[in-house]
Amino acid sequence: MNQLTGGHGDTGTRRAFYQKQLTESDVTGINRKDGRAKLTGTATYAAEHQIPGLVHGYVVAANIAHGQMTSIDTQGAATAPGVIAVFTHKNAPPVSKPTNDFMTSKIYEARLPLSDDQIYYAGQIIGLVVADTFERARHAAHLVKVEYVTQEPIVEASKATFHEAPPMFGKEMKFEKGNFATGIADAVAQMTATYTTSTELHAPMEPHAIIAHWQDADTLTVYEASQWVMSSQRTYAELFGLPTEKVRIVTPFIGGAFGSKAFPWSHGILCAAAARQLQRPLKVVLSRRQMTANTGHRSETEQTISLGANADGSLIAIDHAVKSYTSKVDVFTENCIGVTPVMYAVPNLRSRQELAVMNVGTPTFMRAPGDNPGLWALESAMDELAWELKIDPVELRLKNETKEHQRQGLPFSAKHFAECLQLGAEQFGWQDRPKQVRSLTHDGKLIGWGMAASTYPALRSAATVTVRLLADGTAHILTSGNDMGTGAYTIVAGTAAEVLGLPIEQVQVEMGDSLLPNGGMAGGSQMTATLVPAVMTACEEVLKTAKATTAPEAFATLRQSGESVFEVTASSAPGEEGKKWAFQSWGAHFCEVSVDEEIGRLRVSRWVSVMNIGRVMNAKTAASQIRGAVIMGIGQALMEACHFDPNIGYPVVYDLATYHYPSHADIPRIQVTFVAEPDFNFNPAGVRGVGEIGITGVSAAIANAIYHATGKRIRDLPITPDKLL
Question: What are the tens digits of pLDDT across the range 61-111?
C-alpha cells in the first residue's frame, strides 16, 4: 500500500535506487507482533492486573482554582460502607522529595501530593478515599466536605503576566544571530503576523491508572503505564527511600501516552504511599474528568513571526517571539522556538520565549512538544510570504533550505528535505495548482490546496538487550524498553529475526519490566533508534558465542551440546557523532480541503505525506505512525480546544464526548511515502524516529489550503466553523 521512495538524481532514478536499497535491507510490512494479544484481550494494562486482596482508591479533587482549605470534613466518608481509610493533608502518608532532575528521577508536579492546605488549580488532588470496591470508594469520596477561602484565579493567558522563560534542558530560551533589525530594514518583502493555538488535552485510550503492591515494608511493585521504566523505578525508589532493586515497575502494554505517561503524577505517588501505610495492594484509576485537570496538556501559545526576504524569495531576517504558560506547582515551557534555527537558512535570526504562571494543572510533553505549535506559526508565515512574493510555496522552501543547524553550528546528516518536497508535490499534482485564491470549486464548494514542511529532532539514548537462543528453536529478546502502542514489539522482533536468520514467528519479545535490561525511554521518538542497534549487537554477539552465522546453526549446536540456552547481554549507546552532525528527520504534507461557506463546513478531502526518517524498519507500522500523527494534527487544526471556566477554573470539557477530536468520517485516505535513505552517521542501523514528526506542519498545511480555497487567512487554532462563515 505504501510506496517507499527516496533520494538522488531524477525521480525515476531515486525510486529505483532506494527501492533496491530497501529490498536489500529487508524492509517489509510486518504484522504487529502484539496484535493478537490486543485483539483477543490478553494484553494486560495497568489497571487489569489481578492481585489478591486488592482495594480501591478514589481521589478527592479541589473544586476551586486558587485559595486555601479552611476545613475538610471526612467523617461521612470514613463511616461509609466499605471504607478503609481517608487521607488528606492532615494525615498524609509520608513521601520524600526526589532529586527531580529528569535524568536521575522525575515527577510531573514538583509539589508532592497533600503537602499542605493550599489550592493552586481546580482538580488538584486534596484527598484519597480507600474502600473495598471502586464504587464504594467513589461514593465515599463525594461525601468529603471542604470549605475554602478563595482567591481570584488566573486561568486566562490574556490576564497573566509573562516573563522570560527559564532555561530548558540547559539551554537558554532565546537565540540570536546577525542583526534582525538591520536585516528586516533591508528586506524588499516583509510580513508580520500573530498565530495562536488553544490548550489541548491528553486523551489516551487507556486512562491513567496504577496498582501499588508492597510485598513488605521495603519492597514495592508498581503496575503503571510508564514510558521510561527505569526512570520510574529510580523515582519511586527515591520517593520512598528504597534501593532501586527493591522497586519493580511492570508496564508491558500502554494504551497511548504521547508524553503524558513518562513520569509519575500525583495520583500515582499518593497511591503508592497509601498502599504502604495500609499494607494492602491498592488501585487508583482516574476518571476522564480528573485527567483533564491533573495529567497534563499542551499549553496554549501565542507566536508572533516576522519574515523579511529579497525579491527572489531569499530570506534575510526571521523574528520568532512566543508566549506560553505553566502551572504554580511546576515549570514547563512549550519550546516553540527550538524549531526555528532548523528550518530555513537566514543571516539574521532572533527568537525568544516568555512564560506565565497560571492556576491550571501542569502542562507537559505532548506529541512533538514545541516543534508542533512552532511549525504551525512558521509554516503559516512562510505561506503568507510566498503569496506576497508570488512565489510557489514549495519553491520558497527549496530556495531557503538550510544545510546546517543554525544554533548548533553543525551540518545535518542524511538530510533529504528537498526530495520530500519535490516527491510530495509530484504525487499530489501540485504543478496543477491554480495561482489564485477562490479559483477551484466542486459541487458548489470551494476547494483549496495547501502544503507545509515537517520536521522533528532525531534522538537516541543508551540501551541494553538480552538475547536467548533456546533449544526449542526460539529466540527471546528481553529489555525494559517498552511499547506505548507504536509498534516496538514488532520492530524488536523484526530486527532480531533479520540478524538471526529466523522467521519472525520464532522470535519472542519481553518488554516493559524493570527486571529486564535497561531499554531507554519511549519518548522523543527515540525508542526504535535506541533499541534497534542494541538488538542488532546482542544478536550478533549471541551468534559469535554459538560459533554460528545463523540461529538455525546455533540451535543445532545447542542441541548437540546438551545445553539449554545460548545467552548474551549487549548494549549500544551514542558516541561522539553528536559533535560532528546535527540529526533531524524531515517531511512535507500536501492536502486538499473543501469549504461550504454557507454553513462553515470544512472537510479535509485528500492528503499526501512524504517523510525522510532514515531507514524504514517496518513500512506498515511506520506508515501507521504517520497516519496517526496526521489525524492528531487534523484534530488540532479543526477541533481540539480546552477552555477553563473563568470562575471555578475547571476545564469546561470533561470527557471524550465534550472534547472534540476527529472520527473516521473526518479523515480522508492518507497516502504515506518514505524517502528512506539510512542515516548511518546516527546509528549502526541507519534508523531515526517516526512517532512525532508526522504531526508537525499538519495544521499549517490545512490553514494554507483554507486560504487558497477562500482567500481568508486564519491564524487561530482550532479553525472552527464560526471562523469560516
Answer: 999 999 999 999 999 999 999 999 999 999 999 999 999 999 899 999 999
The arrangement of secondary structure in 164-200+297-458+580-724, i.e. its CATH architecture, is 2-Layer Sandwich (3.30)
Contacts 24+ apart (CB under 8 A), 41-46: 43/252, 43/253, 44/252, 44/253, 45/206, 45/209, 45/225, 45/253, 45/254, 45/255, 46/206, 46/209, 46/210, 46/211, 46/223, 46/224, 46/225, 46/251
Whether omega before 94 lies within 30 degrees of 0, making that bond cis, reads no
Sorted by sequence, the CB contacts under 8 Å of residue 134 that are 6+ apart come out as 56, 58, 283, 285
Computed over its alpha carbons, how large is the radius of gyration of the chain? 26
Active-site residue (options: 224, 379, 384, 692):
692
- pLDDT for 326-378, tens place per residue? 999 999 999 999 999 999 999 999 999 999 999 999 999 999 999 999 999 99
Q: Which three cell numbers stand for residue 224?
A: 503503571
How far is Cα 538 from Cα 533, in angstroms, rounded to an integer? 9
Torsion of CA 270, 276, 278, 283, to 10 degrees: 50
Enter the DSSP assignment of 112: P
Q: Is 388 a catalytic site residue?
A: no
C-alpha cell at 398: 527549496
φ and ψ of 554, to 5 deg:
-65, -40
Phi, psi of 195 (to 5 degrees): -120, 140
Q: What is the pLDDT of residues 35-61, one digit of tens each?
A: 999 999 999 999 999 999 999 999 999
**Cell numbers representing residue 633 in the block:** 494534527
Report the range of poorest mean pLDDT among 150-154, 657-661, 666-670: 657-661
C-alpha span between 530 and 565 (Å, rounded):
26
In the chain, where are the structural domains located? 49-152+205-257+261-294, 164-200+297-458+580-724, 461-573
Length of the chain: 725
Q: Please say whether the structural domain 49-152+205-257+261-294 has been given the CATH code 3.90.1170.50.
A: yes
Which whole number is the average pLDDT over 526-548? Answer: 97
Residue 43, C-alpha cell as written in the block = 494484553
3-state secondary structure of 150: strand
Question: Is the pTM value of this prediction over 0.85?
Answer: yes
CA 306/CA 321 separation, integer angstroms:
9
